[in-house]
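Appendix B. One record, verbatim.
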Amino acid sequence: MTTYFWGDTAVLTGRSIKHVTRSMDTIITTAITPIALMLMFAFVFGGAIDTGTVSYVNYMLPGILLITIASGISYTAYRLFTDMQGGIFERFQSMPIARSGVLWAHVVTSLVANVISLVLVFGGALLIGFRSGAGVLAWLAVAGILILFTLALTWVAVIPGLTAKSVEGAGAFSYPLIFLPFISSAFVPTDTMPGPVRAFAEHQPVTSIVNTIRDLLIQQPVGTGIWTALAWCIGILIVAYFFANFSYRRRIS
């Protein structure tokens, strides 16, 4: 069964990735839009925000990376929804393939597509002045957190992909996720915010993840913040995975 799972998932992933590479609007939305946001913050708002000795490009980049992921996973929900509506899942059920491989193919595709988008955003950041003296271990930690966050949000995206009643509903869930970094430490220090907003910003998952990635890139001690960030990512992943598989079983039963 395990052998069938890996083989079936690989074949189905190849099919899904072909759809992504043939869709230019996906590439534009998930890579160019975050880069445009980065340019706007760097050259329009950056001069008005005091981030101490850290350059504003270095300060805001982690938030842009999370927005890139949140934007990218909306396409996972969209692709899953269109497969459900197109009857592809029913065809797969009549074939001798691992049922879980269908979901995992979309998840792996999301990881691949988001990694490409993140690399493009990093490239754009380098062009406008991002620099980091972080070592190999710090970069590996950053990559691990970004991949874990992508995996967690992808499983969140699977839920509306399976349960939405319309294509608009399948993709609309990502809007709050894209907006969440704006109410965090991603673009401005939280101590500049009013009391209730500051309390929310300091205790939501994006802030701990952004702070951890930023500290790793600028070679600052991460302290216990990295465990908070990992706890958020793993917690979201576990809950989303459970509800996604529950929704999947209900749809195919």
